[in-house]
Queue: 4 jobs
Job 1
Amino acid sequence: GQNIDQPTEMTATEGAIVQINCTYQTSGFNGLFWYQQHAGEAPTFLSYNVLDGLEEKGRFSSFLSRSKGYSYLLLKELQMKDSASYLCAVTDSNYQLIWGAGTKLIIKP
Amino acid sequence: IAGITQAPTSQILAAGRRMTLRCTQDMRHNAMYWYRQDLGLGLRLIHYSNTAGTTGKGEVPDGYSVSRANTDDFPLTLASAVPSQTSVYFCASSEVGAEGDTQYFGPGTRLTVL
């Protein structure tokens, strides 16, 4: 079966750095996405990785290792508004998007 | 309209009733999707459409139907609602071939079936 694993919940301190991990087992691989979802709102696109390595976008970076079936989302200089769920999703060989259950990130002052 | 709109925002429905959730996008994306999101579970694909006039079944299609008469609209119909269809429903769209087919989501419809 196809599976995306990410921690259910993480807690971090305002101003700090946090890394949210995602591991996947899918039938093929055509890209990995990270989305942010605030409570009661829709998911919003953060990043897309299809090649190994680090993609940086301001305070957010996303890393991919296809050989390890592994990605992480790195959030720097955490702000209270970063409190949200972070969803990892992988496009399989049929170009279907497989979603993880999400990681709820709690930011404390 | 900017992006994707969904209607209604929320709805309480009696079991057995028929309900259509509406979704409209103005980005001229060729692909559209319907998901449901339940607590503790990832987004689950109900139905999708790669282009106007075609539709396909996702992971959890039973009890739901869709149509895609034109590029902009992708309604989801529950023919006879059951309590297990209580969920938050998201519509999404993507431009096939653009940045891995990145999907953009509407604001969602919160549906309660009693």
Note: The interface with chain A takes residues 40-45, 58, 90, 99-108 of chain B (CB under 8 Å).
Job 2
Amino acid sequence: GAVVSQHPSWVICKSGTSVKIECRSLDFQATTMFWYRQFPKQSLMLMATSNEGSKATYEQGVEKDKFLINHASLTLSTLTVTSAHPEDSSFYICSAPPTQSGELFFGEGSRLTVL
Amino acid sequence: GENVEQHPSTLSVQEGDSAVIKCTYSDSASNYFPWYKQELGKRPQLIIDIRSNVGEKKDQRIAVTLNKTAKHFSLHITETQPEDSAVYFCAASILTGGGNKLTFGTGTQLKVEL
């Protein structure tokens, strides 16, 4: 199947700093990628849709100025958590559809801990 | 928007027994229903999916049924094994040319006991 790679797999940062997470599609091009957030023992909640060549689309309640998304190329999307606070600590997972047919492939996920 | 409900939240079965997880969705336009298995700290893995033009799909020990009229779908795992223990998520979406935005259920923690 298609491969989606995410980096870093875990990161610890101080409150107030910014953290960048990368999501790459390794063997296909993705005009669209999705960013999810998962708190412990909870479901995956869609944060935003990353669109190559245009602005990201954010879900209701997600601050676009805090969670900056850049779809730099057809194989790379980045999520930057700006001015991170402890409540931003979570598991962030990206996903991409290799085709328009449906199946989503997920990255490994990035566990963010803000001290 | 779409809302997906899933139950039970936890399910404990004996090895060899069957497990059933049920989901309901709200948007009648949804036409794609995947099921994901997620082990602790890892990414979700697709185990089976079904589209709205099909009522049932089976892959070895795993099967999914879809009732469009009632807007619910179910995952059936037969002959459960300890390695089936994980969190299972159902999801729903409307497949379009612009991608596949999934709405996930709340998850079911399945424990298969020896």
Note: The longest strand of chain B covers residues 19-25.
Job 3
Amino acid sequence: RKEVEQDPGPFNVPEGATVAFNCTYSNSASQSFFWYRQDCRKEPKLLMSVYSSGNEDGRFTAQLNRASQYISLLIRDSKLSDSATYLCVALTGANNLFFGTGTRLTVIP
Amino acid sequence: SAVISQKPSRDICQRGTSLTIQCQVDSQVTMMFWYRQQPGQSLTLIATANQGSEATYESGFVIDKFPISRPNLTFSTLTVSNMSPEDSSIYLCSAETGALYGYTFGSGTRLTVV
């Protein structure tokens, strides 16, 4: 079983839509979680960290459910520029990062 | 946030040769990481590089194939040795650059072995 699993998509949504991605992790000892954004042929870039209480950054909201071992990312009012692959990442132990395969999002005009 | 400069950005190499990838961080970092990402797949950790000690390799990766140097707290190299077409991939370096910024990545090296 993979450490981090996420639906690869693709998710094709119209501009202005709300879209949600879920991700599950297998290691209950994982202590920190992140969402990264990766544009085509570019390196991953940190979108946001995910805290137990949930956190919001503008149109983006991340939630963590430790009991069910899943993480979610909600994007409201989607923009064309949101089109990218979103990577779910779990940190276990000292600097052991586990990446999901990514969920591809395409926002359509 | 920190900036990591990685080069070369891409290369096409003959099988049997070696390529060294360099990463320079604009601040001192304790640990640097080297990843491989094959098309449509997730990032796979190759090894963790600490300054002043040998790198720690993940299962499936060995020092003879992927020697790593970490001469100081801002620089690291990864060499892909005796390349074969199966080594064609994107190679990325990374470092933890603070709790606020998480892990920062270099821009990647797209390697094609022919």
Note: Chain B touches chain A through 20 residues (CB under 8 Å).
Job 4
Amino acid sequence: AQSVTQLDSQVPVFEEAPVELRCNYSSSVSVYLFWYVQYPNQGLQLLLKYLSGSTLVKGINGFEAEFNKSQTSFHLRKPSVHISDTAEYFCAVSKWGGATNKLIFGTGTLLAVQP
Amino acid sequence: DTAVSQTPKYLVTQMGNDKSIKCEQNLGHDTMYWYKQDSKKFLKIMFSYNNKELIINETVPNRFSPKSPDKAHLNLHINSLELGDSAVYFCASSPPGSTAPLNEQFFGPGTRLTVL
């Protein structure tokens, strides 16, 4: 069975500091991995996705993630965060349901950027 | 604007009532979903429809009945509401085709349901 673990429920960081949000997955088959962001009182928005190819994936708003098959990880990074990056971040793995795509989400990490 | 929209945004109701949440997408997608986000922000899929046909039903109580009148709409009707149904419900859609596992899902803004 596929699952996703986000080890940190909350990550406080000062503005302009680098940040890493951790995500580990378990899957017995090929994986497709996603990071979504949820700003306060809004729906989810795709940050980036790994499908195949280069293990370093670049997304919107200066975020990037690295797929590491040996460590079954897909950590999200940003070299310098802004106050506006404060949001809940969800890692997800895609499971093919035969006719549709089911996303299995981690429990989320709250990125709290402080001035 | 092209998007996934949901109505209402907020829904407050008493236990035992029946309520509906509507979802519409104008992205031309064939597949639509309902997710439930609980008070701890945990997101779990409830249903998925592909071209008006139910594909995924994740052990959701029978009180929840999705209805898809056409592939642009997926409504969620809930009978006999319980306190535990309080959550934020998100609708989403994704493009069709053989690359579907790779496709991004586009989420609506959510409906916050509070059962008193």
Note: Chain A has no helices and twelve strands.
